[in-house]
Amino acid sequence: MNFLSNPPLCTGHASWQSMSRRECLNHFALGLGGVALAQLLGRDARAAETPAPPRYHFAPKAKRIIYLFQSGGPSQLDLFDYKPLLNQKHGEQLPDAVRGGQRLTGMSGNQSSIPIAGSPFKFSQHGQSGAWLSELLPHTAKMADDLCIIRSMHTESINHGPGVTFMQTGSQIPGRPSFGSWLDYGLGSENENLPSFVVLITKDKKGQPLMSHLWGAGFLPAKHQGVRFRSGADPVLYLNNPAGVSPENRRLALDRLRELHEHQFAGTPDVEISARIANYEMAFAMQTSVPEVTDLKDEPESVVAEYGPDARTPGSFAANCLLARRLAERGVKFIQLYHQDWDHHGGLAGGIKRECQQTDQPAAALVADLKRRGMLDDTLVVWGGEFGRTNYCQGLLTAGNFGRDHHPRCFSMWLAGGGVKPGVTFGETDEYGYNITRDPVHIHDLHATILHLFGLDHERLTYKFQGRRYRLTDVHGRVMKELLV
Asked: Which residues contact 87 (CB under 8 A, 6 or more apart)?
């Protein structure tokens, strides 16, 4: 069937009137595909070109984001949301009027008793802002006037898998592009020798598994997926040349492989072919850039000490926070840190204390370090998990042990820098810490707000896939302008 209505487009073909749609596209690819590929291939060629400007919808306030994701659901009632009434009513039954018929997980839904559990930790106010913070966060408390604490986050997810996926991709169902992939798709990279989206995971931690779809590109081109840096001699798997292969030989092999891919692209134009070539070129550049950025030997001992005693231990949360700052300095746009083991269904007092000892000082040092270097104004730091914890005890409440179940109705996060108002505590929950009473912030609202800080309209940053235009915030989401400078 002849679909063409503009003969000059195919005048180079002897019989354009009989060409099929596929044949015409393949014909175009011989010329246009080569031009497009030439812009992607070779460091020298890329350096000689003027890069396309980022597709801002309006002036951005943030240039990069460091997301400190606390996997497992930290207890807001023991860290940020001070509720003295819980201590007064410790051991009493949670009133039905407060619960309001909310569904519970299978782990506590069948309990004959759901006793209120007060926090065993002391709270006090800090800074000129007077933010209430737990004694578990002495270093974070020193940064209180730099933080925007949100106590009214909420989500639909009540279990870890959908919860973490929702927070990281905007959907409870795996398969959508991750937040970092959306940002890379919208703005691109500032550093041709490092990926725009890097993932760091605290080593030797237990807890819910962290799957690669959390930093995957979904249906976006593969070049937008996150690149995981591991601790040890090989931060990126299969990056180094095998024994006996020199950089010169590697370069020659990539050049020949590029020619084969160009030939394949000419016959079958596919964006994934272009993405594959771009990834090979990035890997070649990373062979020198990654060892340099991950080597902390040039960091002054005074700076390392600020991040805590584990800062020289590869793969620790402290070391990853320090590495995150180094990546940010080199133009990496989205740096995602994961820290597991906040899922305290039992033994909460000891468990949450341990996690705070590992994360409190490094997170606060990161904010202070960025501020000292003049980077905090355009670097957004985010701290939080996928949901909160209940105000009642899961299982038996005893004097020496208790735990909290999952709670999606309200939880706390904090943000710093990147155009967010400092010294602000936003949102309120009821006196039981069970329901939001003022200024709710949904996950889509948080995503919309962060994209806004980067100069992107969450309703206009879309990608057409299978006949529908998708976006990070799905079909709703509001920019929380109350949080912005």
From this structure: 118, 119
Give per-residue pLDDT as tens, 30-83. Answer: 444 444 444 444 433 333 333 455 689 999 999 999 999 999 999 999 999 999
Q: How far are the Cα atoms of 72, 217, 429, 483 from residue 441, in angstroms, in the given order? A: 20, 26, 12, 11
| 397 backbone φψ class: left, alpha, beta (φ>0; ψ -120 to 50) | beta
Query: 204-207: long-range contacts (C-beta < 8 A, 24 or more apart)?
Result: 204/315, 205/339, 205/340, 205/341, 206/340, 206/341, 207/71, 207/72, 207/340, 207/341, 207/342, 207/343
What are 103's two structure tokens?
Answer: 């569904």
Structure tokens, 343: 């899922």
User: Residue 419 is encoded by which pair of tokens?
Assistant: 């155009």
What single letter denotes the amino acid at residue 269? Answer: P
CB 322 within 8 A of CB 307: yes
Single out the residue of 390, 391, 388, 410 nearest to residue 154, CA to CA. 410
Three-state DSSP at 150 gives: strand
- Crossing angle between the packed helical segments 271-294 and 317-329, to the nearest 10 degrees: 110
The token pair at 411 is 């939880």
Q: Do 69 and 167 meet the contact criterion of CB atoms below 8 Å apart?
A: yes
Q: Which two tokens stand for residue 287?
A: 């062979």
Partners of 393 in the β-ladder? 404
83, 89 in Cβ contact below 8 A?
A: no
103-160 pLDDT tens trace: 889 899 889 999 999 999 999 999 999 999 999 999 999 999 999 999 999 999 999 9
What's the confidence (pLDDT) of residue 336?
98
What domains sit in the chain, N to C, each tagged with a CATH number? 64-241+299-483 (3.40.720.10)
